[in-house]
């Protein structure tokens, strides 16, 4: 919405032309400028300029809702508002489980079981809703090549022997878990930026990122001052994309990070 | 500059004005800058008439040199010194705030600029019993705090009530509204219709950066021009109406870690006197649980009268700023 | 005026007030037309035609001016209106859409102590401030530190590391602002602007339920007003009073702040605007720091203007960034030092020894202070002083009974809380 072109806003063409000449094409460009800059560029009077800014603002403004609508909507959807982790105490403290539509993070020292936790969540997500799952596919973005398909199958067999009693169940499970191997920060960012299509076509209901820190640690030397800023920028960008995806598709996103 | 119009002087008749307008001379400035001989030929007006008009206009519109002794007498009779309410600061400022001068207080966040403004306003309203106009541009003014400061200094309820009538507050959050407000103040002082403005001696603007910073920068230079308009307006208010003007400016980190007052080098020439407030409180909030008194310092960084880099310490408590 | 020549110089009569002969009494410093927000092309046209100060144009008619300088009649009318409004002693009406202009200016007149005047005496300001209640936080120590609660007409900023409780505090305030006036509350609604996606309606529901329960407990059965208020008081009503906006980037945030006057005219009961958090979209993807500073300054001024005009509180949350200076690195509020001047009240939330603390870093009328607090299942609460040794981790979700006491008890200024006592 911020990138909506100003020519579609219904402003008079000569003014749009004047703005385009100064490099203002989208609503974002328009709203980032100060009033004095715009007065100079458009040659319009103050009140007309204010009217145009209001038109552009109305095009970009987010939708209004109330907390009650959000609450009712979360409760009434077919899919639950929380994704149960199957660890009862953890679920109790988390108020039901991992909240759908936001990012959750697990952090810990090496060897404490983060990747195992992720693998277990992958199994749970593919289960039908009646059993506490999300009945959907899983996108597992692996940056450390720590994912093991054998371990996935083992967890499924031991945890839910009744459900996974026949081969078809295992085939269904493994075909629903899509693993993406990314080895550089740039490829990870590119993957995330183009993720929407995959999410829709494959019916993904859980995204796991294992792990957020490893690539940044490898590529950015934290002792150099300049790197910190770039690193923060990159991580924030990733976070923003993941948040946006989580909310638009109402899926829980789970990321793994080392201490 | 004034437009040329009929009646500015006896020789300016309607025909003369029209002829001059036809020749492209519309204002007094245009007339004075033009060559009289050329003008005589272009507008077919006699040379003698043009010379007499020119002499009259120059007499009316130019400024005149003033005798130094007269100026000194004038200053001694019209300039007042207003105490800030804190004796160490008064000493630092050679008595306090001088009328006809702009004094600027600059400092980082939470160093005590607004507190100093409120203490000075309270002191001028109670002790000096003069009128104060407090212009708030960022929401930091609290009349409750003003009352607390006056009460903590031992003023009776009666004195406080009278002082509160002498204090007026205006809230403007926009540079153009601030300019309009200053013009309105000046015209009220000229017309004399409101008794408040007759003994207005202190105008506080807290803070100047809040209204000027949003118009600076970007692909335009008009904002810079607006800042200069503000500077001229404030200076005129101070100098022509014998008012002390107290401004607040923020301190920002420039490139690297060097701190400097905001609004740039152009603004640094505007105030007559600049005071820098600092404190030694650590940035780290987690150290705040340790109970430690904060050392605050005020230092002169620009003055026409005092040596610079002289400083004094002060503290902030219930009675505002004190030594 | 009697003019005579003495050696070619004119001698003016002395006036008692203005002896200074820098400028004649006729040509006093008039406001330059260039100091109005006009497009440069019109400004140049005015100058070329010889109009440079306000007095030159103020008596003219629109058609006269448009003919003289060659602009359209509408433009000249606007210029004349702008110039005339600036010289009047009353405030100009905000340029709004034609449909709302009448209602919005009257709304502003009602809310503002000044009505339409530019200045107001300090006494009237004092009465106005005293009649504005503060929004309680339900943590008594925090309320005392702030002088009653989060004040109206000011911007309050909450800074803290992740997990310390900024969003929880915001949700608590969004519920607390709706406390009915008969219980000492503000009885207003909230606009909650969420930029990070951390607002959870389920959590708001928990806090709302706890608050309703608290009010029912302390209500006076004989007070009719309180009983009628209680009858409609429910979690659903509280949640319906929180209007949420989810901003995905800074342009949406800017657009929303531009439209806030329109939105506030539609929802007249709003008394609190929360932006959680203001830092998120300005910290990533921003290469041009001067643009960022400019946008943030503009945003701060718009917000304080709205807070003042509509008599509501604005609460912002800010993130922390690491400052690597001369000493050991520590956390400082994000968005740079120029942002530190934008808020009127700044509260820094931090962890120390497994306890959450709030430090009042900046305030116009309260001393610097640090108080402990905790987040329970029911929301933000104070740390009970007697049980300080047992109040180990604040993440324990004990069902803490909130201290009994009516919200309209004005908290007596007691001695400054020294955190060192709590850690004995």
UniProtKB/TrEMBL annotation, chain A:
Q: Which residues form the RecA family profile domain?
A: 79-259
Its annotated compartments are: Nucleus
Q: GO: which molecular function terms?
A: ATP binding; ATP-dependent DNA damage sensor activity; double-stranded DNA binding; four-way junction DNA binding; single-stranded DNA binding
Q: Which GO terms describe its cellular component?
A: Rad51B-Rad51C-Rad51D-XRCC2 complex; replication fork
Record-linked SUPFAM superfamilies: P-loop containing nucleoside triphosphate hydrolases, Rad51 N-terminal domain-like
| Highest taxon listed in the record's lineage | Eukaryota
Family statement: Belongs to the RecA family. RAD51 subfamily.
Q: What is this protein called?
A: RecA family profile 1 domain-containing protein
Originating species: Patiria miniata
Automatic annotation (TrEMBL), chain B:
> Which biological process annotations from GO are given for this protein?
DNA strand invasion; double-strand break repair via homologous recombination; reciprocal meiotic recombination; telomere maintenance
Kindly list any coiled-coil regions of this protein: none
- What coarse category fits the chief subcellular location reported for this protein? nucleus
Q: Name one GO molecular function term.
A: ATP binding
Q: Which residue ranges does the record assign to the RecA family profile domain?
A: 78-252
**Subcellular compartments:** Nucleus
Q: Name one GO cellular component term.
A: microtubule organizing center
Looking up InterPro entries in the UniProt record yields: DNA_recomb/repair_RecA-like, HRR_RAD51_Paralog, P-loop_NTPase, Rad51_C, Rad51D_C, RAD51D_N, RecA_ATP-bd
Q: What keywords are annotated for this sequence in UniProt?
A: ATP-binding, DNA damage, DNA recombination, DNA repair, DNA-binding, Nucleotide-binding, Nucleus
Per the record, the similarity remark reads: Belongs to the RecA family. RAD51 subfamily.
Q: Can you name this protein?
A: RecA family profile 1 domain-containing protein
Taxonomic source organism: Patiria miniata (Bat star)
Automatic annotation (TrEMBL), chain C:
Which residues belong to any copy of the RecA family profile domain? 131-320
Q: Which GO terms describe its biological process?
A: meiotic DNA recombinase assembly; reciprocal meiotic recombination
Q: Which portions of the chain have biased composition (kind: Low complexity)?
A: 99-110
Protein name per Swiss-Prot or TrEMBL: DNA repair protein RAD51 homolog 3
Which InterPro entries does the record cross-reference, listed alphabetically? HR_Repair_Mediator (IPR052093), P-loop_NTPase (IPR027417), Rad51_C (IPR013632), RecA_ATP-bd (IPR020588)
Q: Where is the composition biased (Basic and acidic residues)?
A: 397-424
Specify the species: Patiria miniata
Which Gene Ontology terms cover its molecular function? ATP binding; ATP-dependent DNA damage sensor activity; crossover junction DNA endonuclease activity; four-way junction DNA binding
Q: Give a GO cellular-component term.
A: Rad51B-Rad51C-Rad51D-XRCC2 complex
Primary subcellular site in the record, as a coarse category: nucleus
């Amino acid at each position: 919405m911020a990138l909506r072109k100003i020519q579609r806003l219904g402003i008079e063409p000569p003014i749009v032309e004047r703005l385009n000449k100064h490099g203002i094409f989208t609503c974002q460009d328009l709203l980032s400028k100060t009033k004095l800059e715009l007065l100079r560029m458009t040659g319009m009077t103050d009140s007309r300029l204010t009217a145009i800014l209001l038109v552009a603002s109305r095009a970009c403004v987010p939708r209004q809702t109330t907390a009650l609508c959000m609450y009712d909507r979360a409760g009434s959807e077919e899919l639950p508002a929380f994704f149960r982790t199957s660890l009862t105490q953890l679920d109790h403290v988390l108020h039901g489980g991992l909240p759908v539509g936001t990012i959750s993070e697990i952090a810990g020292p090496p060897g404490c079981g983060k990747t195992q936790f992720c693998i277990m969540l992958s199994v749970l997500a593919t289960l039908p809703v009646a059993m506490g799952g999300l009945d959907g596919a899983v996108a597992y973005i692996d940056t450390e090549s720590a994912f093991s398909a054998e371990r996935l199958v083992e967890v499924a067999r031991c945890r839910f022997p009744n459900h996974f009693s026949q081969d078809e169940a295992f085939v269904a499970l493994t075909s629903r878990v899509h693993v993406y191997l990314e080895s550089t920060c740039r490829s990870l960012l590119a993957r995330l930026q183009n993720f929407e299509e995959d999410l829709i076509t494959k019916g993904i209901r859980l995204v796991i990122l294992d792990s957020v820190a490893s690539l940044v640690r490898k590529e950015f030397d934290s002792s150099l001052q300049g790197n910190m800023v770039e690193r923060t920028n990159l991580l924030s960008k990733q976070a923003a994309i993941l948040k946006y995806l989580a909310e638009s598709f109402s899926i829980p996103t789970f990321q793994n990070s080392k201490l | 500059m004034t437009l040329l119009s009929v009646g500015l002087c006896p020789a300016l008749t309607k025909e003369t004005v029209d002829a001059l307008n036809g020749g492209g001379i519309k204002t007094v400035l245009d007339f004075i800058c033009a060559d009289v001989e050329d003008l005589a030929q272009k507008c077919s007006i006699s040379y003698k008439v043009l010379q007499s008009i020119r002499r009259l206009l120059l007499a009316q519109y130019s400024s005149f040199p003033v005798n130094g002794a007269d100026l000194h007498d004038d200053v001694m009779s019209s300039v007042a010194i207003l105490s800030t309410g804190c004796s160490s600061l008064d000493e630092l400022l050679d008595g306090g705030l001088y009328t006809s001068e702009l004094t600027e207080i600059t400092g980082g966040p939470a160093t005590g600029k607004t507190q100093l403004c409120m203490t000075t306003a309270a002191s001028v309203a109670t002790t000096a019993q003069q009128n104060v106009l407090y212009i708030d541009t960022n929401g930091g003014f609290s009349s409750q705090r003003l009352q607390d400061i006056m009460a903590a200094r031992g003023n009776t309820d009666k004195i406080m009530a009278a002082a509160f009538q002498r204090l007026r507050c205006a809230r403007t959050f926009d540079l153009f509204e601030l300019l309009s407000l200053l013009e309105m103040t000046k015209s009220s002082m000229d017309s004399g219709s409101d008794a408040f403005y007759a003994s207005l001696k202190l105008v506080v603007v807290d803070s100047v950066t809040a209204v000027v910073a949003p118009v600076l920068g970007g692909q335009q230079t008009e904002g810079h021009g607006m800042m200069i308009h503000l500077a001229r307006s404030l200076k005129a208010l101070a100098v022509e109406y014998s008012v002390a003007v107290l401004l607040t400016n923020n301190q920002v980190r420039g490139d690297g870690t060097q701190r400097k007052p905001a609004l740039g080098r152009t603004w640094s020439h505007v105030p007559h006197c600049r005071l820098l407030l600092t404190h030694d409180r650590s940035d780290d909030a987690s150290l705040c649980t340790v109970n430690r008194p904060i050392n605050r310092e005020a230092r002169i960084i620009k003055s026409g009268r005092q040596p610079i880099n002289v400083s004094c310490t002060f503290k902030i408590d219930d009675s505002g700023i004190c030594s | 005026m009697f003019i005579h020549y003495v050696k070619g110089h004119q001698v003016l009569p002395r006036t008692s007030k203005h002896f200074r002969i820098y400028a004649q009494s006729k040509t006093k410093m008039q406001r330059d037309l260039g100091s109005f927000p006009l497009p440069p092309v019109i400004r140049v046209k005015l100058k070329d035609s010889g109009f440079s100060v306000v007095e030159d144009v103020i008596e003219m008619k629109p058609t006269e001016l448009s003919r003289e300088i060659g602009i359209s009649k509408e433009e000249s009318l606007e210029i004349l209106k702008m110039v005339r409004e600036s010289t009047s002693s009353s405030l100009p009406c905000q340029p709004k859409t034609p449909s709302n202009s009448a209602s919005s200016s009257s709304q502003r007149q009602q809310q503002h102590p000044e009505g339409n005047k530019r200045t107001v005496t300090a006494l009237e300001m004092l009465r106005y401030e005293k009649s504005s209640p503060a929004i309680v936080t339900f943590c008594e120590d925090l309320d005392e530190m702030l002088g009653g609660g989060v004040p109206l007409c000011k911007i309050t900023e909450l800074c803290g590391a992740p997990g310390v409780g900024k969003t929880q505090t915001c949700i608590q305030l969004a519920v607390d602002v709706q406390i009915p006036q008969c219980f000492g509350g503000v009885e207003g609604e909230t606009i909650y602007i969420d930029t990070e996606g951390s607002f959870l309606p389920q959590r708001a529901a928990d806090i709302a339920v706890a608050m309703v329960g608290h009010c029912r407990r302390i209500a006076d059965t004989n007070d009719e007003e309180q009983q009628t208020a209680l009858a409609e008081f429910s979690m659903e009503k509280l949640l319906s009073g929180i209007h949420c906006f989810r901003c995905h980037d800074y342009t949406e945030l800017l657009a929303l702040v531009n439209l806030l006057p329109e939105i506030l005219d539609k929802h007249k009961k709003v008394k609190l605007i929360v932006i959680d958090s203001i830092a998120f979209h300005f910290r990533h993807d921003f290469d041009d720091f001067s643009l960022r500073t400019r946008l943030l300054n503009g945003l701060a001024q718009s917000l304080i203007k709205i807070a003042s005009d509509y008599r509501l509180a604005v609460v912002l949350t800010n993130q922390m960034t690491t400052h690597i200076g001369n000493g050991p690195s520590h956390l400082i509020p994000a968005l740079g030092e120029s942002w530190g001047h934008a808020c009127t009240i700044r509260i820094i939330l931090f962890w120390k020894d497994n306890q959450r603390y709030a430090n009042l870093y900046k305030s116009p009328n309260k001393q610097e202070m640090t108080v402990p607090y905790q987040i329970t299942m029911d929301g933000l609460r104070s740390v009970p002083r007697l049980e300080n040794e047992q109040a180990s981790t604040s993440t324990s979700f004990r069902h803490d009974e909130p201290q009994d006491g009516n919200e309209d008890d004005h908290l007596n200024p007691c001695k400054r809380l020294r955190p060192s006592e709590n850690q004995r």
